[in-house]
Amino acid sequence: MNVLALRHLVRLSGIAGLALLPLTGWGSAWQVSVDEQNGLPSVTRGGGPVMQAKFDFWAGNWSWTGFQTEFKVNGPYHYTLRGKNKELDFDLAADIRKEQAQTLTWAIDLDAHSRQAGVMGGGMVFQFDPAQIAGDMGAPQLLPDNRGWWWGKADQGRRIEMRFDPPLAKVYFERGNPSELRAFLYKDPINAGKQQIRAVLNVTGDIDLGPTPTERFGLADPASWPDDQLDWRTSPVDLSFLNAAEKPAGKRGFVKAVGEQLMFADNTPVRFWGTNLSAYSLFKTPDEEIRQQAKRLSALGFNLVRLHHHDSPWVNPNVFGDGTLVSDTQQLGTESLRKLDLWIKALKDEGVYIWLDMHVQRALTANDSIDDFKELAKGEARIDLKGYAYVNSSIQQAMKRFAEQYLTHVNAYTGLAYKDDPAIAAVLITNENDLTQHYGNALMPNKDVPRHSERYMAAAKAFAKQYDLPADLTWRAWEHGPSKLFLNELEHRFNADMIAHLRTVGVKVPIATTSTWGGNGLSALPALTAGDVIDAHSYGAIGQLEKNPLTSDGMIDWIAAAQVVGKPLTVTEWNAEPFPLPDRHALPLYVAGTAAHQGWDAMLQYAYSQQAFNPGWRTADNWHAYNDPAMLATLPAAALLYRRADVKPATTHYVFAPTPATLYNQEITPRNSPLLRTAMEKGQLQIALPQTPELPWLRPADIAADAQVLRDPGQSLLAADASESVTDTGELKRNWQLGIYTIDTALTQAASGWLGGRKINLGAIQVETRTPYASVVVQSLDGKPLGVSRDLLLSLGTRAMPKADDKTPFNVEPLEGSLTIKAPAGLQLFARDAQAQLKALPAAYKDGHYTITFDNRYMSNWLFLK
Questions:
Q1: Whole-number Å distance between alpha carbons of 416 and 649
Q2: How far from chain centre, in Å, is Cα 82?
Q3: C-alpha to C-alpha distance for 764 and 820, rounded to whole angstroms
Q4: Domains in the chain: how many in total?
Q5: What is the pLDDT of residues 635-662, one digit of tens each?
Q6: E strand or H helix at 364, and its extent?
Q7: Contact predicate 774/750, CB 8 Å
Q8: Phi, psi dihedrals of residue 219, rounded to the nearest 5°
Q9: Phi, psi of 852 (to 5 degrees)
Q10: Same structural domain, 567 and 703
Q11: CATH label of the domain that carries residue 144
Q12: CA dihedral for 793, 794, 797, 800, sign (positive or negative)
């Protein structure tokens, strides 16, 4: 019997022939490993970080200096680190080893090339999770004589100690803050010369010393893997049939928000699976490639595309034209608008809808007639409007002028103004620009923007007086309490005014205000309810499948915490970083499966591309999914299962209904709330915002009669010793201890994660791989259940690594193992090559099952059994 292999890959060090380390799960309780970004120790609990470290060095007056590092895995538990600080003129080299079962050592060589006086110095900064300080671990303690620190509680036997020999220049807590400890290698002055420091980290109790990601995924040389066969102009699969009934987009009328659901004007419900076209892709792509990419996007299964970073100053040209020629942002560039027109027309023709942002990162100039421009510019030529827009009416007017120009512009190819085109599905007022957590602080009296601070403080004083709140607390944007009431009020005023203007201009589709993002807690949600939808952004890191919800938050939890009773939920950005994560192929399946179960309404990956679609040289990047064989391995499969509703919606409904005191007086996020993490593992999670006297515009939630109302954010809905969760429908299972996620439905069956050495049995398939980490998906394309379907799509994901300097094509890790599929007799296995030609492949058939063996003889991320 002949056999197959596949294409895939991930960024690891170039070491061949080393044995795979034991697959210690990051979902295990406590673990210390070496961070591959900087060579310093990192502590996790249940897959979530509880102690992280970094290098920081400062010149005079705390002026931060860059420290470039290069990390290499030499072998199991043996690493080297090289670092260079150009400003302070020194080099660092470290040899890092696991010398004993519970000991890591750093042999550090410092080489200062010249004397540096009047500097602050620097070294290692250790950041501890405040929740662990208040809970299981207590506060970290300093060792005497600048020799290091230790962390733990004697009564639990769990302890981590970091000891330096000889003693360091200085070890102290930053401003008495027990969650940040600084261990200075240098202080003023830095004398020229060499010195050696030995650092030893010891752990005791139930803490493991674990491998780095590179070691876990396999110490192979990616250069030995085959190149990907991905053609960036055509799609490896054709899911355009999902959009056939919508050609041209908008034929059912304008999108509308009806309760918690998005619908077309004819009351047909709609669910959007989307992505982002950003920056240079919008304006520098040739016309013929715009049309070609629109077809490809439809074939990949997308039905919504957000046009993003159209106004950002680092993009040239942008929507305002050539940045070297224009001196303000009051006029839109003719050629730039033509490019956007063509994108909209091409996508519309393929049944793909468009999301428009009114503001992303627009940089206002001195010629834009902005009040008090100079105090914001501080000598620079341009200013960022975020935060300031909420108290500066001239910035608000500039935003309104742009929105009116943009939305009333008549598309040269459709003959419709953007506001009148039902292919435009939604608009966003301002991107990642909230007061409630991020940009309220920009208006504080100590930020040297006196006129803006004056307006802010006057508004805070008036609000405090109106509702009899303590005036000295109401303006303090960085604290919970009365300030969160005021910040929501101020943000809501802006939102209501901007929405009224957009409606006057003629916008008919749902409007999002800004997004909940970047660690926003639940207290950021009330102001967002001014919009027709709640929008969220969420970015994860490595190991999302291994996040233990009893102790640790994942990117999915932050999305779930944004689902407000009575409002549709859109997610205009989701991804994981830093690029290229070895497990990124698992993310689309996890996102799509959860979104379908939770009832989320629009999911947009960020991003399809930020670079122009031009023939020739191409680069790999986290913001270019279009040429990434790891992401594209499973993005179409995710689109199919989500849009076709293969995963049933939850039957159990949990509603977290905090009181006003709970919501505004304390920080509640997935990071510190077991309820927000555990409820969505079982049923649907929603947030009911309470009626709040100080915010009369906040409508009380209409909670469904069958909902289970929960009040305590500290409550867990999983057993204390749980190692996996199964949704109430039984279709989704995640074992965080093993790091495995499965989907088992009639039309889609998938296994993803640490599959190596295990046998996974689902309804109609059996997966066995020797590749440590992989994704395997089998789907019906004819709408008939697996087992009887005669048209199947097989999607296969493994690691994908760009070549040196992020060049393409990628190297892709071959999948090794077998896949057994129950299906009728008489089917043939095919792969589609880069030229879209089908190549027949062998598959054994016995007792109603096909067996496909993967062993490097043929490579493709996508196979077809039909």
A1: 37
A2: 29
A3: 8
A4: 4
A5: 999 999 999 999 999 999 999 999 999 9
A6: strand 363-365
A7: no
A8: -85, 70
A9: -115, 130
A10: no
A11: 2.70.98.50
A12: negative
Q: Are residues 282 and 422 in the same domain?
A: yes
Same domain, 190 and 314: no
Task: Give me the pLDDT at residue 647, please.
Answer: 98
CATH classification of the domain holding 326? 3.20.20.80
pTM of the model: 0.94
Distance, in Å, from the CA atom of 314 to the CA atom of 108, rounded to the nearest integer, reads 39
Rounded average pLDDT over 783-789: 98
- 383 and 373 in contact (C-beta within 8 Å)? yes
One-letter-per-residue 3-state SS of 741-766: EEEECCCEEEEEECCECCEEECCCEE
For the chain, what is the total number of helices (H) and then of strands (E)?
Answer: 16, 48
Q: Write down the H helix ranges in 211-286.
A: 213-217, 280-283
Residue 8 has what pLDDT?
29
Domain shared by 622 and 701, yes or no: no
Half-sphere exposure of 837 (CA within 13 A, CB side): 2
Radius of gyration of the chain (CA): 27
Question: Is residue 140's pLDDT more than 70?
Answer: yes
Position 418 in a domain: yes
pLDDT of 16:
31
pLDDT digits 0-9 by tens, 176-213: 799 999 999 999 999 999 999 999 999 999 999 999 99
To the nearest 10°, the Cα dihedral for 456, 462, 465, 470?
0
Find out whether 855 and 819 touch, Cβ atoms under 8 Å.
Answer: no
Residues 614 and 695 grouped into a single domain = no
Domain housing 801: 727-865
Residue 572 placed within a domain = yes
Q: Is residue 452 very low, low, confident or very high in pLDDT (cuts 50, 70, 90)?
A: very high
Say if residue 541 is in the same domain as residue 560. yes
Does residue 682 share a domain with residue 779?
no
320 and 302 fall within a common domain: yes
Q: DSSP string of 106-166?
A: EEEEEEE-S-B-S--EEEEEEEE-HHHHHTTS---EEPGGG-EEEEEEGGGTEEEEEEEES
The pLDDT of 530-541, averaged and rounded, is 98
Give me the count of residues in the chain: 866
Is it the case that residue 21 has pLDDT exceeding 50?
Answer: no
> What mean pLDDT do residues 710-733 have?
97
pLDDT at residue number 28:
56
Residue 281 forms part of a structural domain: yes
Report phi then psi at 116, rounded to 5: -125, 115
Q: Would you say the C-alpha torsion 410, 416, 418, 423 has a positive or negative sign?
A: negative
Closest CA to 484 of 436, 444, 526, 517: 436
Instruction: Note whether residue 261 is domain-resident.
Output: yes
